[in-house]
Amino acid sequence: MAAVGYSEKVLEHFIKPRNVGTIENPDGYGKVGNPVCGDQMEIYIKVEGDRIKDIKFRTFGCGSAIATSSMVTELAKGKHLDEAIKITRSDVASELDGLPPRKMHCSNLAADALHEAIRDYRRKRGEDVKDDTPAKHGSCGNHCH
Amino acid sequence: MVLVSDTEMIYLDHASMMPLDQRVLEFAKEYLVNPGNPSSEHSAGLATRKAIEEAREKVADMINAQNSKSIIFTGSATEANNLAIRGVALRNIKKGKEVVASAIEHISVLNAMKDLQKNGFQFSIIPVDSDGIVDIEALKGILKKGTSVTSIMHANNEIGTIEPIREISEVVHEKESYLHVDATALAGRIPIDVQADNIDLLTLSSNDFYGPQGAGALYVKPGVKIQPVMLGGGQERGLRSGTENLFAIAGMGEAAKIAKSEMENESGRLRNLRDQLIEEILTIDNTHLTGHRTQRLPHHASFRFGGIEGESIQLNMNMFDISVSTGSACSSMTLEPSHVLLAIGLSHEEAHGSMVLTLGRSNTIEQIPRIVQAVKDTTRRLRELSLL
Questions:
Q1: Catalytic site residue A37?
Q2: What is the reported pTM?
Q3: Which chain A residues contact residue B330 at CB under 8 A?
Q4: B74 with B80: CB under 8 angstroms?
């Protein structure tokens, strides 16, 4: 009995999400979204030799939010930071075989959280970091619509 | 994809949609296949006209209406709400240009009243308390001689709270406003008496007491002036044109008759199940009942869970083959959180964690342990995932 509108892949990531948890003393940390909007997510990364050695997430949100968080950590794990920063919102959605149209906004959050964690890592190392995400926290409108 | 597949589905979303009662199907199915326009003078038409009038009697009887002529059949409760509000406000525009509704009314009532603002009406909202009970003092303050229609639902479908309609009726009539009561959630569960409560307009939904979808009704107290919303050939005394949905109307009547006769026993049975569910689910950490604990629909158990979100709760329960409802923003078409949950004072964040269980004839006491376990497993798992 599949939920209407969700692909098998989304349901699979919902039932068995990958990389759930936290990392103590992470090398990078990103938190995006807002419980007021119903979606908030955090990503922790451990970096070694400029590669994401370990990655964990926690999410407050709907089925899509959980599935996209799980998928983005799976896509990012083991990748070089320069590759991981290129993972986009639509990469996440298409790896999940698509999301229902009104759920697409949830995929935005997952990719944004990853990028934020990478930027955090770079900032900690004193690198000059450009923040070109539409919004980190704050108003629901920016990441939802 | 279902985690547990060797057990049958447990359906706990009766407030969204109910199955058609088998007895109603048996009674009304002939009207699906045997034609006969009730406006025609041949035997086929006469037979269906009789069936409609019998259905009208049964519906009138369920709500203790004095005369069955006061029942107008519509295509849905939403339609009945629109007819009540637009049909009365516009017909009585000289009486006044104010309309009033509680903050927790169904969206069809709120939108119909909002729309009247285009006709120059003023629309005021009555707040409710944290249990969803209408603030009677605020109501007294807002009502004026020019208030045309006041709409307060008999009970709310999202939080289960039953309103003190008799007391509200006295207050509303003191200011000479018409009282519209949307009884969609309560009909068939608790007896209704439109005469004793002095109700002017009452909305009913067929499917909400195991009748066919595609029929609703509006009770209009004799003497209340009303004009149609649906124009055409003049069916239903000119108040709702359109060739009658024979199966749905005949079915609605039979469903009303069955509901009336079984109501006391069935509601008693469901109240017991509801109370057990509430008691056991409230043992879960950071879990709260929404709506009034005792002035509550007998089949309704609604909760909010801190730190997790309603659509994922619904999806997770579905994995256990249990159908539930939620008021969360993510599950709605508009991505807005439930206006009912906000009206009872929940923050946006709190309103997201909602789960609504509404019981029906298919639910049994044997299902309780499985339901409770699924809720516990769901909340535990989602909380492990959550950062809140």
A1: yes
A2: 0.93
A3: 38-39, 61-62, 64-65, 103, 106
A4: yes
